[in-house]
Specification:
Blueprint (H helix, E strand, L loop, with lengths): L2 E3 L5 E3 L20 E4 L5 E4 L7 E5 L2 H16 L2
């Protein structure tokens, strides 16, 4: 898990259950992206909530989830 600590004390991460982030203090969880199915049976990863792109054309949900995490780690958490 990558944790980014901002100068104002706020932290950002891609949430998972690797650690109990509640132990770090008061938390607010906000969605950074949306992985959704499309009518043509493909999947998209919409990263616009954090100023990112709409990644499209994934045949499997797992592929869209992997692309979502990769983009967030390389662009939003770097």
């Amino acid at each position: 898990m990558i944790l980014i600590a901002e100068s104002d004390g706020l932290m950002r991460c891609v949430y998972d259950e690797a650690i109990d982030v509640g132990q770090l203090g008061s938390i607010t969880i906000e969605r950074a992206s949306h992985v959704e199915p499309k009518c043509d049976r493909t999947w998209t990863a919409d990263l616009t909530p954090v100023g990112g792109p709409l990644l499209t054309g994934f045949e499997r949900r797992s592929e869209a989830l992997a692309a979502e995490i990769d983009w967030l780690e390389n662009n939003w958490l770097s």
